[in-house]
């Protein structure tokens, strides 16, 4: 068990600022899934084609994280962070205008499928959103390392991860509430305008000079260091554990992306809850987004708690415990017929475990990666994981179309179990050796 050190006021304020950026990123990245129950009717399309739009965004978001990580280790990170929000806002504006300009675009015929002009413009918009999304992780993690002490990294990573789930929950709540009185297009326009304003606010806050945004410089002016060289000498300090971590991401993202993409469709399609209050009727699509919001909020709250836990206990033990609990809860969700209250409880448990693991996961990666390589380490990991897992929404959507939503959600437990096995491998001294204190980051 590790000792604990209280956060300073400056660390807390920095944590709040960088966490707001992570929340904003997730608001934009998660705006599309809550729209799926609406768009599947408006555009008369299949779940797998809508899932493909999520895959396009994920693919772009993964593909560009490695180059963003390289840039983040070489240049002032502020000049990557601000344009990221501009790009995400612009991408959804392109998405909104797709029904207007799309008919002028010729249809695309591929693999026996027809992709209309509006659909192609929507795909372009989602690609731009993904490019903007790609900058936040490889910029955010090294910023945290540069401005927060090692003793408090888990707490700030808890704030950072919790904020992501707040963003994930804000998106469906915004859609669920405003869709009652506004078309979905105007909801997206309003959020995009806020995104442009937020980008300007970030620029002003970081330009105050209070926080370090520049990357560390190595003594010989290149990317090598004693820590990196030792990591190359003993592959158990960097190479082997990083390979295991990448494989764990593939499994964990299968469960996480399936939940985030199709949870609203699952609740709406399987349960179809609706209710009326003060003259307004909340149809199944709106109620489903409220459940989705609860899923994300539980993940947000749990990360605040589990971030502090990660500062006290072995990161691997925290991860294995949470992944095992998540797998059991996913099986219950898929196999049992639940009441409205029971469904809510299961969603809370899944959110708390599936997304509550993020602080321990990220702190583990930060420990493995040398400081001057951290931006690239996170960039490479997210690129490999997100590009490789970008097909997941299509696969899960296809299973839902052919075998039913319950069956598709049952397969998500495989992701949690696979992640558990990968993390458990890190207990082996043949795979992972923690860096000695003199070579570990201060």
From TrEMBL:
Q: Which InterPro entries match?
A: MFS, MFS_dom, MFS_trans_sf, MFS_Transporters
Task: Supply the alphabetized keyword list.
Answer: Cell membrane, Membrane, Transmembrane, Transmembrane helix, Transport
Spans through the membrane? none
Q: Give the membrane topology, semicolon-separated if more than one.
A: Multi-pass membrane protein
Does the keyword section mention RNA-binding?
Answer: no
Q: List the subcellular locations.
A: Cell membrane
GO terms for CC?
Answer: plasma membrane
Gene Ontology MF terms in the entry: transmembrane transporter activity
Domain of life, source organism? Archaea
Span of domain Major facilitator superfamily (MFS) profile: 3-436
Quote the protein name from its UniProt record: MFS transporter
Identify the taxonomic lineage of the organism of origin: Archaea, Methanobacteriati, Methanobacteriota, Stenosarchaea group, Halobacteria
């Amino acid at each position: 068990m590790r000792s604990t050190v209280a956060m300073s006021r400056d660390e807390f304020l920095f944590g709040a600022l960088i966490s707001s950026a992570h929340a904003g990123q997730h608001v934009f990245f998660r705006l599309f899934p809550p729209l799926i129950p609406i768009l599947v009717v408006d555009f008369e399309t299949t779940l797998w084609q809508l899932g493909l739009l999520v895959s396009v965004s994920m693919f772009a978001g993964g593909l560009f994280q490695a180059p963003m990580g390289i840039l983040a280790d070489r240049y002032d990170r502020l000049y990557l962070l601000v344009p990221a929000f501009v790009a995400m806002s612009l991408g959804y504006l392109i998405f909104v205008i797709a029904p207007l300009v799309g008919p002028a675009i010729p249809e695309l015929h591929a693999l026996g499928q027809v992709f209309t002009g509006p659909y192609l413009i929507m795909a372009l918009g989602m690609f731009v959103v993904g490019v903007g999304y790609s900058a936040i992780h490889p910029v955010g993690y090294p910023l945290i390392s540069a401005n927060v002490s090692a003793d408090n990294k888990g707490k700030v990573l808890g704030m950072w991860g919790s904020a992501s789930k707040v963003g994930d929950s804000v998106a469906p709540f915004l859609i669920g509430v405003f869709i009652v009185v506004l078309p979905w297009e105007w909801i997206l326009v309003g959020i995009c305008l806020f995104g442009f304003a937020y980008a300007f606010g970030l620029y002003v806050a970081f330009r105050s000079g209070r926080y370090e945004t520049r990357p560390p410089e190595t003594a010989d002016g290149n990317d090598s260091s004693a820590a990196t060289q030792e990591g190359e000498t003993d592959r158990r300090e960097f190479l082997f554990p990083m390979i295991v971590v990448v494989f764990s991401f593939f499994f964990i993202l299968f469960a996480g992306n399936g939940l985030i993409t199709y949870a609203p469709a699952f609740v709406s399609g399987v349960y179809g809850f609706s209710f009326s209050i003060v003259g307004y009727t909340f149809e199944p699509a709106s109620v489903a987004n409220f459940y989705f919001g609860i899923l994300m909020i539980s993940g947000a709250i749990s990360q605040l708690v589990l971030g502090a836990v990660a500062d006290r206990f072995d990161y691997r033990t925290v991860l294995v415990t949470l992944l095992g609990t998540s797998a059991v809860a996913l099986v219950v969700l898929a196999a049992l017929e639940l009441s409205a209250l029971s469904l809510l409880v299961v969603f809370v448990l899944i959110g708390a475990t599936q997304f509550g693991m993020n602080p321990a996961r990220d702190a583990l990666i930060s420990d493995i990666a040398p400081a001057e390589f951290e931006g690239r380490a996170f960039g490479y990991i997210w690129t490999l994981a997100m590009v490789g897992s970008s097909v997941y929404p299509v696969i899960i959507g296809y299973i839902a179309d052919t075998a039913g939503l319950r069956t598709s959600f049952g397969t998500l437990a495989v992701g949690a179990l696979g992640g558990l096995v990968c993390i458990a491998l890190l207990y082996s001294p043949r795979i992972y050796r923690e860096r000695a204190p003199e070579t570990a980051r201060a």
